[in-house]
Amino acid sequence: MATSPDDASLRVEVPLDRLGFRFTEEQRLMRDAASSFARERIAPGAAERDRSGRFPLELVRELGGMGLLGMKVSVDDGGAGADNTGYVLAMQAIAQACASVAVILASSNLVACILADHASPEQRERWLSPFARGELGPAGFCLTEPDAGSDASALRTRAVAKGDGFVIDGSKQWITSGAHAGIYLVFAKTDPEAGRDGISAFVVERDTPGLTIGKDEHKMGLRSSGTVQVHFEGVEVPRSQLVGSLGRGYAVALGALGAGRIGIAAQSLGIAEAAFAEGVRYAAQRRAFGQRVVDFQASRFAIADSRTDLDAAWLLTLRAAALLDRGERAPMETSMAKLAASEGCGRVVDRMLQLHGGNGYSQEYLVERLYRDARITRIYEGTNEIQRLVVAREIVR
Questions:
Q1: Where would a tag sit more exposed on the chain, N or C end, judged by fewer CB atoms within 10 A?
Q2: 263 and 371 share one domain
Q3: Same-domain check for residues 274 and 386
């Protein structure tokens, strides 16, 4: 249940103009387009989709038509031609309306970026351009397996050479949009003895014989993002569906994950900004012991700490995006952004639920859904424990 107090003096808007970054006109237009669509089309049905678990396929198609499935893909290839900063601003705006839609975009953009960087001219024409234009629906990023999460080198899916192609066997888990994807980017071992250097990446189309969709996961949060297992049994693909060089799949994935992590940081910011606005507005309306909840010192400390967490996460995320936009290597900065934003998000949502009191535990209030959606941000796209290892490794070699 959204709140709308009469107190117009509340400062709960996202303070982009006070963060010290100068955004280009293109970046602002990107964010404005995403924010307008999120407000008008995504937010109104978010609660119902959360309750029913319905995948927002119609919204994904519309987002594809806007170029948002491939935000950083060039305009010539059908995308929006955004930089990393524009991507962060757009993702944050979408996540503020619905984190489930945001993670669908994050997964699809991850696949789009890999194809934009590594696809052959034929692959760009066959898959990248139609996908970026929204003609193929969302994409499935198939790296994680039942027994291989953060340790990607432990994956068991095999791609065995056969004639002028490969036969893929194995299973992938936690695949966002898996039941609705038009294409899947599948990582499989082509040389089991070579460790990480024996992993290759393949595009597999939805209707390929041997590809089957497993059960839909019943999750705590992000309930309408459509998370499933995807199984490959004797799936034959020609060599023309190999993305990049043979044995370079792990490097392909790793090269995209830095930019992917700022996408999760942006998603965390969207969830947290939504919670912050809800918490402050509710506390300004609710009265206890003869005064507004917002007037208690404990409430003001919670609000101050939350705004500080948010601004710190914004600064780290925008710094990481700016470094990537300059073409710099930034594993430490992207990991710090994801770490700070996701953990800050958890603290902010928890405080804002506390400001709601018992009502915060009710599904009638938006903050309850935000609390559930926030928890996964510390786990996927590399757990926060992995992010700490990356940061430390860049400092202590």
A1: C
A2: yes
A3: yes
Torsion sign across C-alpha atoms 171, 212, 56, 205? positive
Residue 282, both tokens: 């509710």
Which residues make Cβ contacts (< 8 Å) with residue 266, sequence separation at least 6?
A: 87, 88, 89, 91, 92, 95, 102, 317, 341
Q: What is the number of residues in the chain?
A: 397
Using CA of residue 91, residue 92, residue 94, residue 99, what is the dihedral sign? positive
Q: What is the DSSP string of 184-227?
A: EEEEEES-GGGGGGGEEEEEEETT-TTEEEEEEP--SS-TTS-E
Is 381 tagged catalytic? yes
Residue 75 CA to residue 133 CA, distance in Å, equals 10
CATH number for the domain including 120?
1.10.540.10
Q: Is the dihedral of CA 335, 258, 166, 190 positive or negative?
A: negative
177 & 309 share domain: no
pLDDT reading at 7 higher than 70:
no
DSSP 8-state secondary structure symbol assigned to residue 145: B
Mark whether 202 and 274 lie in a shared domain: no
Question: What are the tokens at 155?
Answer: 């994956």
Evaluate whether 219 touches 227 at the Cβ level (below 8 Å): yes
Mean pLDDT of the chain: 94
Average pLDDT (135-158) is: 90
Residue 227 contacts residue 176 (beta carbons within 8 Å): yes
Q: How many whole angstroms from its chain centre is CA 158?
A: 27
Residue 312 structural domain? 253-395
Judge whether 213 and 178 are in contact, CB under 8 Å.
yes
Q: What average pLDDT does this structure show over 89-108? A: 97
pLDDT digits over 241-295, tens only?
999 999 999 999 888 888 899 999 999 999 999 999 999 999 999 999 999 999 9
Which among 193, 217, 381, 394 is annotated as catalytic?
A: 381
220 and 104 housed in the same domain: no
